[in-house]
Write a structure and sequence with these properties.
The chain is an alpha+beta fold. The chain is 49% helix and 20% strand. The protein is built from nine helices and 13 strands. The protein has helices at residues 6-18, 38-43, 46-63, 158-165, 169-186, 193-196, 198-214, 235-307, 310-330, and strands at residues 66-69, 73-79, 82-83, 91-94, 100-106, 110-115, 127-131, 133-136, 142-153, 221-232, 335-337, 346-349, 358-360. Strands 6, 7, 8, 9 and 10 form a five-stranded mixed β-sheet that branches. Strand 8 and strand 9 (142-153) form a beta hairpin. Helix 5 (169-186) packs antiparallel against helix 7.
Length: 362
């Protein structure tokens, strides 16, 4: 609204008139203490609209009738205390302050750890720390199970989940189911069986928890994994298992040594058998060679015998007789010995000189 300056004008005029009676007043030079800026003088009636815009902008920042939903979150809008079934997806959303309210819910992956060692609270709100699950085994001995459960709140069912279970839905949905399933599964085993059947137990726990979570109406939670981290046994049972393991290892070592010795003996026996077989093959080869040679010689002798015709023998006798005649011409004292049967004679030439004896074999 424009500022009215009539008051200052009238006052200036009155002060000016009064100065006529008082020559020493100097009222003609009076200036008003406040002068309207030229900007507001030019606005006139438009100044009201400007004020309205300024008030609206100020109200938006003061009352903040909007909300920004980020990725990994959903917004749940409630009107006069009643949650709407459709969640607000990531983005910019308006609501009416006083009548409506928007609650941001985290839908990112969460972890629930069950551990025997107490640790300080985590600064990350998506990680929850719980004590280990204490169980009695089949014989009543105490056993502790350490787990890590990965899960997240489903965006579609977030309004219904918060309406039914409240903001502490994790302690009402995840925690009781995990503890109940672990106790029912692990409780049927003895403490000594737990380490040897660890994988079997881990699979049963995950399948049991998943079946119970998925069976909830509306699928409020998506279970990602259940990891069995540690099975904490009583100290006496642990020592007993260690002794059994050491005995088993020693037994396996002895079995290995016996097997190794047996293999060495079999190796040496195989080598001896191989060497004996090689010698037998070598001897058989030599015998076969002699047999082949004898057969060849027999064939040769047979061929020679068949080739000795009477004419050939007569010719050889003539040749021997010629040599006999030559020997008699050289030495008349030579002695001749004839083999019986009419075969070719053997001739010894005796020169009566032992250094010059000559034997001719035909």
């Amino acid at each position: 609204m424009p500022i009215d300056n009539d008051y200052f004008k009238n006052r200036q005029q009155n002060n000016g008139g009064g100065n006529n009676n008082n020559s020493n007043g100097g009222g003609g030079n009076f200036q008003p203490p406040f002068e309207t800026p030229e900007f507001f003088k030019n606005l006139g009636k438009k100044a009201g609209m400007l004020y309205v815009v300024i008030i609206i902008i100020a109200a938006l920042f003061i009352f903040k009738p909007f909300v920004i939903v980020e990725s990994g979150e959903v917004g749940i809008k409630s009107t006069t205390g009643k949650y709407e079934e459709t969640p607000l997806r990531p983005g910019f959303h308006l609501y009416i302050p006083g009548f409506q309210k928007v609650v941001l819910i985290d839908t990112k992956v969460r972890l629930m750890n069950y551990a025997s060692i107490e640790v300080g609270g985590s600064m990350d709100q998506s990680i929850r720390l719980n004590p280990a699950i204490n169980i009695l085994d089949a014989r009543g001995l105490p056993v502790s199970i350490e787990l890590t459960v990965q899960y997240r709140l489903t965006a579609e069912g977030a309004p219904t989940t918060i309406a039914n279970w409240g903001f502490s839905w994790e302690d009402k949905i995840i925690n009781p189911v995990v503890r109940d399933i672990v106790r029912n599964i692990v409780g049927i085993y003895t403490a000594e069986e737990l380490p040897t059947k660890r994988n079997e137990i881990a699979v049963k726990i995950e399948n049991g928890v998943r079946a119970n979570i998925d069976a909830l109406p509306g699928t409020p939670v998506a279970l990602l994994s259940v990891q069995l981290r540690e099975i904490v046994l009583p100290p006496k049972i642990k020592e007993q298992i260690e002794r059994v393991q050491i005995a088993n290892q020693e037994s396996e070592r002895v079995k290995y040594e016996v097997l190794r010795a047996k293999q060495e003996a079999e190796k040496r026996a195989a080598q001896a058998t191989g060497e004996a077989e090689a010698k037998r093959i070598e001897a058989q080869g030599r015998a076969d060679a002699v047999t082949i040679e004898a057969k060849a010689q027999s064939v040769a002798n047979k061929s020679i015998a068949e080739s000795l015709t009477p004419s050939l023998l007569q010719m050889q006798q003539i040749e021997v007789q010629g040599k006999f005649n030559e020997a008699l011409r050289e030495n008349k004292d030579a002695k001749i010995f004839l083999t019986p049967g009419g075969s070719t004679p053997n001739i010894w030439v005796d020169t009566k000189d032992k250094a010059r004896d000559t034997t001719i074999n035909q």
